[in-house]
Design a protein that fits this description.
This protein has 13 helices and no strands. The chain is mainly α. The longest helix has 22 residues. The chain is elongated, with a radius of gyration of 20 Å.
Length: about 200
């Protein structure tokens, strides 16, 4: 079985998982014996990385999980998309910050929060995520991965005190998409368009 067929089986298993369809999941394992071992490994990895209660052990494993996730993306989508962030994606598409924001009907301040990794991925609805991904002509999974890779550009201020650095990092605390929209300078129509 080639990687493409295995990839489709994994997607089918995930779709059945989202639908709560255990019969389809068992059927996939039963009907594709040549892919059973790879599917079982995939299911085990899915269960281990499933969001749940945060505990100390999960916090310690997080960097390892992120590296594994990046490696998996690299294998599926190639090296260029796996480690890219939203700033790199925008530049790759030949868009300025203002052009990207205008094309998405977002405020520049909101799009900047995306590029700085301030917006929490889980706060986006499927519709919102699909709309953002469609604009950049990538899959929702790719967009989500790039959002998770996004972080602010480092500021080179050698005179900055530790206290000022803490204040700067406090301003970059994660924020929900709805919260960013509500605090934005966007027009009421634009806010309604995204929050509806």
């Amino acid at each position: 079985m080639n990687n493409n067929e295995l990839h489709h089986l994994k997607i089918a298993w995930l779709a059945a998982e989202e639908a709560g369809d255990k019969q389809t999941q068992f059927a996939l394992l039963r009907d594709y014996p040549e892919a059973q071992e790879a599917l079982i490994d995939f299911i085990a990895a899915y269960r281990i990385t499933e969001p749940g209660e945060t505990n100390e052990q999960q916090v310690e494993v997080l960097p390892l999980t992120q590296r594994a996730y990046a490696t998996a993306l690299e294998r599926v989508y190639g090296p260029s998309m796996a480690s890219a962030d939203l700033r790199q994606l925008r530049v790759q598409k030949g868009l300025s910050l203002a052009e990207a924001a205008r094309g998405l009907h977002l405020g520049i301040d909101v799009w900047k929060k995306f590029e700085d990794g301030v917006i929490e991925l889980f706060s986006l609805s499927e519709r919102q995520l699909a709309r953002l991904a469609h604009f950049f002509q990538v899959s929702a999974e790719q967009f989500g991965g790039m959002l998770n890779n996004s972080q602010p550009l480092p500021a080179l201020d050698r005179r900055q005190t530790a206290q000022a650095a803490r204040r700067t990092s406090d301003r970059r605390k994660k924020q929900s998409f709805d919260e960013a929209i509500k605090k934005s300078t966007m027009s009421k129509e634009q806010k309604k368009e995204w929050l509806a």
